[in-house]
Design brief:
Radius of gyration: 18 Å
Helix content: over 70%
Largest sheet: none
Number of helices: 3
Shape: elongated
Keywords: Membrane, Transmembrane, Transmembrane helix
Structural class: mainly alpha
Order of helices and strands: HHH
Distance between the termini: 43 Å
Number of strands: 0
Length: 51
Amino acid sequence: LLLALEALTPSKSWVAVFPAIAGIAAIIGLAIWKRTLIKRWWIRLRNQNTG
């Protein structure tokens, strides 16, 4: 992947990299926003597995 990005011009490499950065930022944002729900879900899932 890095070799392919280096072969592209800088503007084209940003077109390739930006969606990945945006996706990661969205996932992190949702995780922070919904952290209490995720924590409850994780505790419930863990209790079912041990239970």
